[in-house]
Write a structure and sequence with these properties.
By secondary structure, the protein is mainly α. The chain has 24 helices and four strands. The protein has helices spanning 2-7, 16-30, 65-73, 80-101, 106-120, 123-127, 134-149, 155-171, 173-192, 200-228, 238-246, 248-256, 275-280, 294-302, 304-314, 316-329, 346-352, 355-361, 365-368, 371-398, 407-433, 438-442, 447-457, 467-474, and strands at 58-60, 232-234, 403-404, 462-463. Helix 2 packs across helix 3 and helix 15 packs across helix 16 (316-329). It is globular.
Length: 475
């Protein structure tokens, strides 16, 4: 909470207003709650023609109703309640983890760790951001705690972890993919082990249940949009944007159009372009998906699977190598400088947020002084670099010849493996399915300083004393 307190309130990202609008629409139509958001078709602020009779009423997918309701409920406290819950859940998991690992004087070490990551890592920033981003790291931390120390947890703690996993999955589609990927990796590793002594099937029950809740919740959200809102659900074609930006998608369109019949053929002369501009530029002169009529947007979205497969078939080497390269580059693509809304984007705020939210936002430090987020970013980069050095040194000492593994060390090995796997898979999922973008990895990289702190304060690695040193000591 340190950084949001310095900011004078939560941080707001452009997508925050979309989450709040979905929740406000739900509250109005299904709960008869009045709100101050005016819900209009997509991009109506920039495209008045979409408000005409017969126009499509669309709702963009990827903006979870569940996280929207969470943030919308916090509106009554100027959103302080929402970010307090986010920070509180993260803090509770860290405290529970230190307690379960039981290093000497664990409360002081846990509090010290929380102070460090709150002041110098990306954790406090994303805990104070009205976006579901922080829940990606919270989800991986909760899963690691369950898999490593689950036998020490009470029933109430396990139920709380299940609730955290389920909400995280419901909060954003990338979280669903991340949890599924981490669970799949460790399920395969368990199947490959010659001695399957650990009850991994039982441990898989919790992430499986959370994923099942995610599926049910997503289906229910789709029904709420189509039946409750009377709207059409529109999926942004992130992978299409990525392939055209990367090159193979553009090459395929230039060689196959108009015979291939894709809706994108009408825009091939504007490609390639930055993936973000592809999706969000609403200028009729320069935009593609963001500028297209809604019926064309729906066609581009519906054609994504076919477009990706045909691009892969036509340009297999450049497509696969490019996706792998971008997935790996996401590992070190960390940035928060352009996340929080500043006064440079005042036009967007005025067009997409109600007056009371605009008035509150203009009082925050990040809105008026972008230097705040740049300072946070620099501190985070330094802490991440130092944490990587600590972790590298720990790995060298841990696996050098003569090191002994006691139960404490074995638990730490497992914990570190799970958390690092989550960090790596998050980069691959976001970098491949979308494109490398600083916010995607910055949201979860605070796990690295947490790992470094854990290995520093936990029981020291026990090393077997070399025989020659014993002989010297006996003389």
């Amino acid at each position: 909470m340190a950084i949001p307190l310095q900011n004078g309130g939560p941080f707001v990202y452009p997508d925050t207003t979309a989450y709040l609008k979905h929740a406000a629409k739900f509250a109005e139509q299904l709960l008869s709650v009045e709100h101050s958001f005016e819900i209009v078709p997509a991009r109506a602020a920039h495209r008045p023609d979409l408000e005409s009779p017969g126009s499509y009423n669309v709702v963009m997918s990827g903006r979870s109703l569940y996280y929207g309701l969470f943030a919308y409920a916090g509106w009554m406290t100027s959103f302080w309640a929402a970010i307090a819950i986010q920070a509180g859940v993260l803090s509770w998991l860290v405290l529970l983890l230190f307690k379960s690992l039981s290093p000497p004087a664990w409360p002081y070490k846990a509090i010290g760790t929380l102070v460090v990551i709150s002041l110098f890592s990306s954790a406090s920033f994303f805990a104070g951001l009205l976006m579901p981003d922080i829940w990606a790291g919270i989800m991986i931390l909760a899963l690691a705690l369950h898999w490593t120390c689950g036998h020490q947890l009470s029933i109430s703690s396990k139920l709380a972890i299940l609730a955290i996993l389920a909400f995280s999955v419901l909060a954003h589609g990338s979280h669903f993919l991340l949890l599924a990927a981490v669970a799949a990796v460790f399920a395969v590793l368990w199947l490959l082990r010659p001695d399957r002594t650990e009850p991994w099937l039982r441990k898989m029950a919790m992430p499986t249940a959370a994923l099942a809740i995610g599926v049910v919740g997503t289906v229910a959200w789709g029904l709420a949009v189509t039946v409750g809102y009377g709207a059409t659900l529109l999926h942004r074609p992130f992978l299409t944007a990525h392939l055209t930006d990367m090159g193979p998608g553009t090459t395929y369109l230039q060689e196959s159009c108009p015979e291939s019949g894709f809706a994108l053929c009408d825009y091939k002369d504007r490609l390639p372009m930055n993936w973000s501009d592809f999706l969000f530029d609403s200028s009729p002169e320069t935009g593609v998906f963001g500028a297209a009529p809604v019926e064309v947007q729906l066609a581009i979205a519906d054609e994504q699977t076919a477009f990706v497969l045909q691009t892969l078939a036509a340009e297999p080497v450049s497509t696969v190598s490019g996706l792998i390269k971008d997935g790996l580059s996401q590992l070190w693509t960390l940035s928060m400088a352009k996340v929080a809304i500043t006064k440079e984007r005042e036009d967007y705020v005025l067009q997409n947020a109600p007056p009371d939210l605009v008035a509150w936002l203009k009082e925050t430090e990040a809105y008026n002084a972008p230097e705040l987020t740049r300072s946070i970013e620099r501190h985070n980069e330094i802490l991440v670099a130092l944490s990587a050095l600590v972790l590298a040194a720990w790995l060298i000492l841990r696996f050098r010849p003569g090191s002994l593994a006691d139960p404490q060390t074995a638990a730490m090995d497992k914990l570190v493996t799970i958390l690092i796997t989550g960090i790596v898979l998050n980069a691959l999922i976001c970098g491949i399915l979308a494109s490398p973008f600083g916010r995607f990895q910055a949201r979860i990289i605070w796990l690295l300083p947490l790992i470094a702190s854990l290995v520093l304060v936990s029981q020291p690695i026990v090393l077997k004393t070399p025989r020659w040193l014993l002989k010297v000591g006996s003389r």
